[in-house]
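Notes from hallway chat w/ T.B., transcribed later so I don't forget. T.B. wanted the structure written out for a chain they're using in a teaching module, and asked if we could keep both sequence and structure tokens in one place. Agreed to drop them here.
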Amino acid sequence: MNEIKNISTLDLFRGVAGYGVAISHYFFYLYKINIFQFYSIFFVEFFFVLSGFVLYPQLKKVYRDTKNLKIFYARRWLRTIPPYFIALACYSLLFNKFDSDTVKYLFFVQKITDNFVQEDYFSVAWSLSVEEFFYLFFPIFLFMLNKKRFLNIILFFLGIVYFYKIAHLYFNVDQEFYRIGTFLRLDAIAFGVLLRIYFNKVNNNYLNIITGFIILFLMDYFVNNLTTLNGLDLFLFIFLVQSFSINMIILFINFEKYIINKRIKDFFSLLSKQTYSIYLFHLFFVHFIGSMTFINNHFFSFILYLASLFLFSTLFYLLIEKIIIKNRPSYINKLS
């Protein structure tokens, strides 16, 4: 599993997650179809678990040689922060918001506690806060506990997060905050790391298909009570979504053997490269498409939305992200 970057179906999976979030938010915000808010929760969770899954080799490099810690931070932050800052500037200009809320977004702390921002005008940024704080904290655990087994370190990290999550069940925190609070969601990425470690042991297609259907069957209860979930139900709902994300990653990886056409693989790769900018900027396009009252054809509006996202995200990757990626520092050693 070390050559995970060469698995084109994971590129497709990332693309499905990116466009899935964008499409779900389009129908939720413009047409108030609540079921699409439910779908968007799944697609964001796909991102989290996949992020941990593909991040494992880099974390292993830090674990094997602590000199790679600074390189890990440089590579992760150069990849994620410059596009984020550009998106934050765009949303701040759009909503004419340059105040204390902007500063909180700037440092990814807008969701460290409930109601910390007065106006959540860059709402999708909560997931980026989860990612950035995982990048910050977990390598420190690897650095400090370097003499321990990698598996023990990740389990220890998960134990701390779960203690925090379970404790908050008794604090009667807001349902939405329990789902998007920064320190309450670090477990999702850690689950992806665990999946990578145990992939060969859990890679059973038939078992995962059956498990996936069972999870979807259980989800029927949650989708009908999504707005009223709290306490243990909310805890279980998030855990089931994470479990389903694991199932989907395994299924997509096993689908790789059927993809033999290079052009299809190149297209999957393009979709993967688009996803970060799509996630950051799609609400920008939702706003502008929604403001075009002269367009009465809903189908045309939707096609225009997708085409705009595709074109913008492709150009954004080629003109900005690709240049940054090429100039990131390299790790001291290679993961064997």
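Follow-up for T.B.: Residues 40 and 283 are 13 Å apart (CA to CA). Might be a good example for the class.
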